[in-house]
Amino acid sequence: MREIGIDQLDDLARGAGILGTGGGGDPYVGKLLAREAIRRHGPVPVYDIGEVPPDATIVPVSGMGAPTVLLEKLPAGTEELTALRALEAVLGRRATHIVPIEIGGVNSMIPIAAAAQAGLPLVDGDAMGRAFPEAQMVLPTLIGVRNTPMALADDKGNTLVVNAVSNHWAERLARAACVQMGCQVSCADTVLRGDQLRDGLVPATLTLAEDLGRAVRLARAGHADPVAAALGVLGGVRLFTGKVVDVERRTTGGFARGRARLSAVRGETGTLELDFQNEHLLARRDGEIVATTPDLICVLDTDSGEPVTTESMRYGLRVTVIGVPCDPRWTTPEGLALAGPRYFGYDCDHRPLPAA
Amino acid sequence: MREIGIDQLDDLARGAGILGTGGGGDPYVGKLLAREAIRRHGPVPVYDIGEVPPDATIVPVSGMGAPTVLLEKLPAGTEELTALRALEAVLGRRATHIVPIEIGGVNSMIPIAAAAQAGLPLVDGDAMGRAFPEAQMVLPTLIGVRNTPMALADDKGNTLVVNAVSNHWAERLARAACVQMGCQVSCADTVLRGDQLRDGLVPATLTLAEDLGRAVRLARAGHADPVAAALGVLGGVRLFTGKVVDVERRTTGGFARGRARLSAVRGETGTLELDFQNEHLLARRDGEIVATTPDLICVLDTDSGEPVTTESMRYGLRVTVIGVPCDPRWTTPEGLALAGPRYFGYDCDHRPLPAA
C-alpha cells in the first residue's frame, strides 16, 4: 500500500496523458478535480492487485464523452460520486475499491477524485493499459465480465442506469444519453471482484504513469531529451518528429473524431498522418501504415515531453510521435476483434510496430 | 369494478384510435398484444378512480417511439412487463394498479396487456385524455409529479432507468436511448398514488373509448353515419371531409413527423392541411388555422368511421377530420406551456374550435 497525495498528481497526470494516446480527456482538468478532492478528504491509499481480497467489490469510475467538450464545459465535480452511488444502489452493495477504467488523461484523475470523495482506496492498474474510445473496449469484456449495470451522471443532476444485453449495447445506449447530457458525463460500470483483477486489469499502471511523468520531468529539468526518457520507461519506438500542419476535427456521435497531418522537421523527411476517435487509431507515414490500434500511438511535445491530446493538437505544434506495444491481450484475435483497426472501419490488420 | 375481456378489445381499440388524434401507435398491433395476454391470463379488472385506495401505487405502462416503426417492427411482447419490473426494482415496491399514460392507439392496449401479465387491475382513466408525443406532456407534470424514475425496455432485453432533474429532461434522455433501441420501447414511469388520481388523470377514458368504438360500430352496422355517431359521443365538430392528396413523412428524432394535405370531396370546398408529430398538432383550412393542439384533431375514415393514424395516412383515403375540445386543464397557461402550439414551434396561440 502506498498513497497518492497532491504531490504525486503532476507526474501522474503527465504520464497518464502520454499513456492516453491522445485521448482520455485533458489531464489538466482531471488534475484540478483530483487535487481538490485530496485537499478536502486527504491522500488516497493505493493497493497492488495482489493486495486486494478476492471477494472485494472494485468499481471503475470514469468520464465518458468527447474530450473537445471537456475543454469548454467543466464538470461540476459531483458527477463521479453520484454515478458511484447510483451504481451501488442497483448493485445492492457498496464498492470496496475504486480503479481507473483507463490509464489516460482525465480518466486517470477522476478515479482518484472519486476515491477521495468516497473514502475508498484505489487499485493500482486499469482495464485497458491505455485509453480507448468505447466502453466495451476493456479487458473485462475479454473474460466475460459485463459492463452493466452502468450508471451515468451528468453535471445537472440527471442519472441513468443501463442494463444491456452486451457490453457493446451498453456503450451504444450510454453514448446516446451522454450526447444529450452534454457530451461529458461520469460513469460507474464494469464491476470487478478481487479475484478477477489479474485477468481484468493491466497491473501497476498508476505507478507506471507516475514513473513516466517523473522521468519526463527530470529529463527536462536536466536538459536531457524528455522523449528519450519516455521511451526509456515505456520501451516504445520513435515514429516521427514533425510539425502539425493540419487538423480536421469534428465532435460527432459523442466522440472527437478527426485527422492530423504532420510535416517533417529536424532532419526527418515526409509526412505523418494520424487518425483519431478520441484516441489515436492509425499512423500513416507517407501514406503507409506504420502503427495501428491497439498499440499506443502517443504524441508528445518535442521540447517539453508533455502529452499532446487530440483535442489540443493545433497548427504549428512541434511534436514527436511514439509507438508503444499494447498489453499482449489486445493482440489476441479476441482483443483485435474488440479494438483492432477493422473494428474502427479500417481495411487493414494490426501490424507490429517497426523495430526501435 | 368491471372487467375488460377479449370481447371489449375491438370497440376499445377503435375508440382509442380515434381519441389518439392520429398518434399513440397502431391500435391493431396493440390489440393483438392485449388479446394474447388476456387469453393467457384472463380478463383484467378495471376500477374507477374513486374505487382506488389513496395509498395505492399506480404505474402507467406505455410504448414510446415512432408509430411508423411499429408498423414494421413488432414488439416481442415481453417489454412492458420487463419495464414494469425494472421500475418496481428501483421504487422498492410493487405496483398495485396499471393505468394508460395516454388513451390512444397502442398505448390504450399495452396497459391492458401489462395488467393481464402482471395480474394487476387497471384504473379507468389516462394521464392526457388523448395522446401526446412527448413523455412530459401529462397532467401529473402540471401537479408536480415527477415522471422519473422511468424504466425503458426494448425487444432485445436491454433496460434503462432514467432519473432526471425534470420531466422534460427525462423525455430527452429516454428519447435518445429509445432511438438506439430501435425506436420502439416500453416504458413504466410517472408513478401516481391513489390520492393523486383525481388531479393526475382524465377519468373514465377507457369507458369512453369503448363507448365511442361501440357507437361507431353500431352506426356502421345500421347504415347510419359513423362519423356523426362519433361526434355524438365526443361532442366535437366536423372540420373537413376530403381525400388525402399528399403526405410528407419522415421518421426523425424518435418521432414520426410530417404533413398531410386533403382536398375537398362531397360538396366540401378548399383544402385542409394537417401537421403532425406522432399526433396531429395543427389543422389549416385554406391556409387558416382552424384547430390546434391541445384540442383533439381526429381523422376518421369517412365511410367506416375507423380511426386513421398518422402513419397510415396515404393518398386516396377518404377521411373526415373532426375537432374535439381537450380536457380543460390543458388550456390553462400551464397546460398550454406544456403542450400548446408554441411549444411545438408554431407562432400562434391556441384557439378554440369553431362552433359545431
Structural class of chain A: alpha+beta
**What's the total helix number of chain A?**
11
Average pLDDT figure of chain A? 94
**CATH superfamily heading of the largest domain in chain A:** CV3147-like domain
**Outline type of chain A:** globular
Distance between the amino and carboxyl termini of chain A: 35 Å
The greatest inter-chain interface is formed by:
A-B, 21 and 21 residues
Main sheet summary of chain A: 7 strands, antiparallel
**Oligomer designation:** homodimer
Spell out the helices and strands of chain A N to C: EHHEEHHEHEEHEEHEEHEHHEEEEEEEH
- Kindly state the percentage of residues in helix of chain A: 25-40%
CATH topology of the largest domain in chain A: CV3147-like fold
CATH class of the largest domain in chain A: Alpha Beta
Rg on CA atoms of chain A, Å: 19 Å
Main sheet: strand order of chain A: 16-15-14-13-12-18-17
Domain S-Me-THD N-terminal (chains A, B): 8-163
Domain S-Me-THD-like C-terminal (chains A, B): 166-353
Pfam families (chains A, B): S-Me-THD_C, S-Me-THD_N
InterPro entries (chains A, B): Oxoprolinase-like, S-Me-THD-like_C, S-Me-THD_C_sf, S-Me-THD_N, S-Me-THD_N_sf
Would you write up a description of this structure?
2 copies of one chain form a homodimer. In chain A, 32% of the residues lie in helices and 28% in strands. By secondary structure, chain A is of the alpha+beta class. Chain A has 2 domains: 2-203, 3-Layer(aba) Sandwich (CV3147-like fold); 226-339, CV3147-like (Beta Barrel). The longest helix of chain A is centred in the middle third of the chain and has 17 residues, at 205-221. Chain A starts with a strand and ends in a 17-residue tail after the last helix. Chain A binds chain B through residues 86, 89-90, 156-165, 169, 172-173, 176-177, 179-181, and chain B through 86, 89-90, 156-165, 169, 172-173, 176-177, 179-181. Chains A, B: This is DUF917 domain-containing protein.
